[in-house]
TrEMBL record:
Residues 72-349 form the Tr-type G domain. GTP binds at residues 81-88, 148-152, 202-205. Keywords: Elongation factor, GTP-binding, Mitochondrion, Nucleotide-binding, Protein biosynthesis. It comes from Punica granatum (Pomegranate). Residues 476-499 are annotated as: Disordered. GO terms for molecular function: GTP binding; GTPase activity; translation elongation factor activity. The lineage of its organism: Eukaryota, Viridiplantae, Streptophyta, Embryophyta, Tracheophyta. This is Elongation factor G, mitochondrial.
Amino acid sequence: MARFSRSSGSRLLYSLTTASSSSAAAAPSRLHGPQSTLASLLLLGGRCRHFSSGNLARAKEDKEPWWKESMGRLRNIGISAHIDSGKTTLTERILFYTGRIHEIHEVRGKDGVGAKMDSMDLEREKGITIQSAATYCTWNGYQVNIIDTPGHVDFTIEVERALRVLDGAILVLCSVGGVQSQSITVDRQMRRYEVPRLAFINKLDRMGADPWKVLNQARAKLRHHSAAVQAPIGLEEEFQGLVDLVKMKAYYFRGSNGEKVVSEEVPANMEDLVAEKRRELIEVVSEVDDKLAEAFLNDEPITPTDLEEAIRRATIARKFVPVFMGSAFKNKGVQPLLDGVLDYLPCPTEVRNYALDQNKKEEKVALSGTPNGPLVALAFKLEEGRFGQLTFLRIYEGVIRKGDFIINVNTGKKLKVPRLVRMHSDEMEDIQEAHAGQIVAVFGVDCASGDTFTDGSVRYTMTSMNVPEPVMSLAVSPVSKDSGGQKEDPTFRVGLDPESGQTIISGMGELHLDIYVERIRREYKVDATVGKPRVNFRETVTHRAEFDYLHKKQTGGQGQYGRVCGYVEPLPAGSPVKFEFENMIVGQAIPSGFIPAIEKGFREAANSGSLIGHPVENIRVVLTDGASHAVDSSELAFKLAAIYAFRQCYSAARPVILEPIMLVELKVPTEFQGTVAGDINKRKGVIVGNDQDGDDSVITAHVPLNNMFGYSTSLRSMTQGKGEFTMEYKEHAPVSQDVQMQLVNSHKASKGAE
């Protein structure tokens, strides 16, 4: 639709808004001649230009409403849910109705094409979504960016990263399964990032579908202040359509793919139910919206517009969750859900985003969210594409253009934007510029996930994203040595173990590591053998022990001579360094030029203790005396003397093995508290705290890492998948005597075998 409007100074402003591009329902009218050229120019630039030579100040005034309208027509939403609630199927239908794709493929379809959003081979095969693909589409002249997120616990970093950049979300619930464990986790994450949300009860066509039961579960388990904005016409096989409780209209979905939405009057046999449910909706919303409450208490008639505005206010304030219904697989209820996204979820300017000012000791700064401010963008996802690293950016403020110079605040590097694209799963289209509120991808920008980019005028970083520490490590071989530069997923780490020379990969759990080993096999064509998970031990001394060692070697020519005397002792608790060397020699018993070589020798010897060959920590070496030879003393002689002196006195210092102790935080429903606590005691854990949080128990414990392998699996089975845990490194602590004997014996046996 084209609009001409006169503005001050008789300048002509031409603005163009695209009609709804829903597929067959409304094919956009084609523009011809000069109009089409003008339209394409406008769309290319991404902004309306003023065709005038009027002064800049007035042009700026004119621009204000344009930003407002353009930003008001933008929605950034995520779709997240429990695994198998039909999330990816729903996204597929949304893309079909908005004209982004022209045919529908099922997730585990027989045609072998797979859903559009599942673009990795592995995802199509397993029928689960691993990466959150970002896609944009238009609906009724609004631009909607959709992030499809994974539902598996091991991939929660993807969900958290997606929620970090969204303005609103759709929580998909299954009308048969109801509120499941992962729904609780996802909802908790949405609450943490303060994301306004709609709920969509899917699969109403399935046997045993009961949306009202699910709605009550959401109120009880998720503590949602929610009410239905729709009522279904029939359920299971008889599911035909929906009644909109706001507008009081019945909708039926006709056509081969439900693309024709037919609006009719509410069926006579449903009038009582609909009136009751509408009254319930008004009551629930008026509890959190004063304006509607006033009208409701004064018994004034409530128009659909009043109700719609009240729902929008309450949803954006995160005081209310509107509940939609449908069956994505049967193509029913998707278009009204899209309307709900436009009507009830916020546009980028209605959400508060804060940055941390690095120049003012990370002081919180509210961002305006408009394209007028300085550029602030967050790299929230990285992908290795065919053309190198693809970085997904959410722009919070300002404008980014192709060819601009931007600065990575986290590293301080200045970069040029070589190519700017808009993503549609794994296809892309080039754009020239993008403004605040949009989600775009850039090529050839070297950065890590979570980095912030600005135009250089400010040093803001977006709040650090909650990245959980990897909790499990596996040794893999052979993986090429340069594979450590993986920046796509911050919870997956690759490193080379200096002690064993093995490549160690660490991640969030067994499934997470399995998927990565599988990806190494497929994407990099490297067949990797996977070792058993392992733990990094340390050694230390508990007593003071003296050393006095003479290293003397006479061969033809210059010999070797060096004598070192002194003692080793444990460092006091809480010392900042792990190894300390002190020279207390008075006079010139050993020339000062050899002292660094002696320190080097002791440090080298401490790299591998004689109990199980792991590094020795918390040790202080004091040099008190020694002797040198005018000709035969050399740096090498004193270095060797130090190494042998350390080995000589080490066993006298009563060494012990230290193991990593983890701080484990569990969140489990109260009914499983006893079982879980008993299991922690069995794993030699010490419970240090137990709190209530709503219906959940939060248990804090210190558990040896060696006893935590396979824990994610056993916790899921103990709590029916409802428990979750995080663990982070706390400290190294001495192992018990029996464990020490066991470790020493197995080390000796493995050395003997070599």
